[in-house]
Amino acid sequence: MSRIGKLPVAIPAGVKVTVANSLITVEGPKGKLTQDYNDLVDIAVKENEVIVTPKCDSKPANAAHGLYRNLVQNMVIGVSQGYSKSLIINGVGFRADVQGKMLVMNLGYSTDFIAVIPEGLTVTTDDQGKITISGINKQQVGEFAADIRKLRKPEPYKGKGIRYETETIRRKVGKSGVK
Question: Which CATH number, 3.40.50.12780, 1.10.1040.10, 3.90.930.12, 3.30.565.10, labels domain 3-80?
Answer without folding.
Answer: 3.90.930.12
